[in-house]
Amino acid sequence: MATITSNQTGDWASTSTWVGGSVPITGTRTGDVTIDGNLHFADGGKMHLHGRMTVKNTSHSSDNTGEFVEGTTASGSLLSMVGGTEIKISGSNSDQHGIQVDTRKWCGVDIQGGEPTLITKLNGNLDYNSEYMTVDSAANFAQGDKISLYEREVDWEAIVDECFIVHDTDVPNNRIYFRQYVTPTAVISSSSGSTIT
Fold it and tell me: What would the pLDDT profile of 130-144 be if each residue is shown by its tens digit?
């Protein structure tokens, strides 16, 4: 995918914003995005990100200012989104995808708004021997999805024994069937009779 670079402040859809007048297409998936300035999503703005969005700073070295400040020559970087905007992030488990801050100094992320659909809660207690979990809605899940479980108010750390992979979904009954997750990968090295190693 070709690299497209902005050369001034302006609307995404304006040819004068981009070097060579080539506007990045927003109707399809967008690959890696590096923000070295301010990328602001106005109300109704949408992007389908299929890669990494990195809030990065390569030009700001002053301790006297913080993240991106309009009109300053020495300024950091900022990703800002107001309510009514959306970034859909997709990719396989082997892809590098998501939003990251390259360095905390002089960089910021300001995302305002509400969660539209992707908060899913357990519907009742879950026994540790269960083959499925009942949730308020299974519609947002598909076979092969990887789910991390954590206690929201305490801490979250992505380690393999806090995860499982969705085997199947039963949307009418709001059930998510999962594979037990004991190690990151399981490889069959040999079999003999009824014994699998």
Answer: 788 888 888 888 888
Candidates 52, 100, 104, 105; CA nearest to 74 is: 105
Pick the closest to residue 145 from 121, 173, 169 (CA basis).
169
pTM of the model: 0.54
User: Residue 51: left (phi > 0), alpha (psi -120 to 50), or beta?
Assistant: left
How buried is 108 (Cβ within 10 angstroms: 0-12 exposed, 13-18 middle, 19+ buried)?
middle
SS3 21: helix
CA–CA distance, 130 with 125 (Å, rounded to integer): 10
Residue that has been written with the tokens 């360095």 in this structure: 103
Query: Which of these, 165, 158, 196, lies nearest to 181 by C-alpha position?
Result: 165
